[in-house]
């Protein structure tokens, strides 16, 4: 499981986040310097836990803190309608949550009592269900014209992500509630994306990328929901290793890379 998780996390840190940041209004210097944190952070994944791995992860954490600090600056400027803006703010902040868990896990420190395995999964969750999902929800909301369904998606994806985070501390049933809200939001993103594809205003590769990202969500979020329900109710569920190999791979390659790749092809104004 660790090998596959490292691949997914490396894709997130070196591919999904820097590509996604090109779709957000952030300082140009940050785009150029992102690799100074992301590359050491990715390298830390492949080292044994300890001081060296922790130091490399800390370089990535510093870059994500810089990104998170853009959120209050942006909030003061209020650049987009509120639901879309909440999605973008979530995308700016969640990599720092992931990086905090990464530093602790690479040092071998069970932060706040969470096991090292849970911390590693937290790194993945807040790169993909946090950054990528929130960013795509905001982009989809704009593409759909900020209608009622689009606004609901732009609010429920960040809301579900934060409820899942709260569930880590409150309990499994709270985490299940977050999974339900997040799943509903992601299915709305899927529905709106399919509607956009059917309008036939994009070239074929872009439609294919959007279509794949949309269809993948219908499967990957069922897996997430069933796992959260199993955790809360004590029902049978897939082992964590199988969740990484199914839900994790689908979200990383089928959803995040395809959705962000499609938006980059459309060359929109950054959110």
UniProtKB/TrEMBL annotation:
The chain crosses the membrane at residues 51-73, 85-104, 116-137, 149-170, 176-195, 207-228, 240-262. Keywords: Membrane, Transmembrane, Transmembrane helix. The keyword Transmembrane helix applies. The keyword Transmembrane applies. InterPro entries: YndJ-like. Signal peptide: none annotated. It comes from the Bacteria. Pfam families: YndJ (PF14158). This is YndJ-like protein. It comes from Streptosporangium roseum (strain ATCC 12428 / DSM 43021 / JCM 3005 / KCTC 9067 / NCIMB 10171 / NRRL 2505 / NI 9100).
């Amino acid at each position: 499981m660790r090998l596959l998780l490292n691949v997914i996390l490396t894709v997130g840190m070196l591919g999904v986040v820097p590509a996604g940041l090109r779709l957000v209004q952030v300082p140009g210097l940050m785009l150029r310097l992102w690799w100074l944190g992301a590359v050491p952070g990715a390298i830390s994944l492949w080292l044994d836990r300890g001081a060296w791995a922790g130091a490399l992860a800390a370089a990535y954490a510093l870059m994500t803190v810089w990104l998170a600090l853009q959120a209050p600056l942006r909030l003061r400027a209020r650049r987009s309608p509120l639901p879309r803006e909440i999605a973008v703010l979530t995308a700016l902040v969640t990599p720092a949550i992931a990086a905090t868990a990464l530093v602790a896990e690479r040092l071998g420190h069970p932060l706040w009592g969470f096991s090292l395995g849970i911390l590693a999964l937290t790194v993945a969750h807040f790169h993909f269900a946090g950054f990528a999902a929130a960013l795509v929800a905001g982009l989809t909301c704009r593409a759909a014209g900020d209608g009622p369904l689009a606004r609901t998606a732009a609010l429920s994806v960040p809301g579900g992500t934060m409820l899942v985070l709260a569930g880590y501390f409150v309990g499994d049933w709270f985490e299940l509630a977050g999974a339900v809200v997040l799943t509903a939001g992601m299915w709305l993103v899927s529905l709106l994306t399919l509607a956009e594809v059917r309008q036939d205003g994009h070239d074929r590769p872009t439609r294919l990328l959007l279509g794949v990202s949309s269809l993948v969500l219908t499967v990957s979020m069922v897996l997430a929901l069933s796992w959260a329900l199993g955790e809360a109710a004590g029902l049978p569920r897939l082992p964590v290793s199988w969740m990484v190999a199914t839900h994790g791979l689908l979200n990383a390659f089928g959803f995040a890379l395809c959705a962000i790749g499609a938006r980059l092809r459309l060359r929109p104004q950054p959110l």
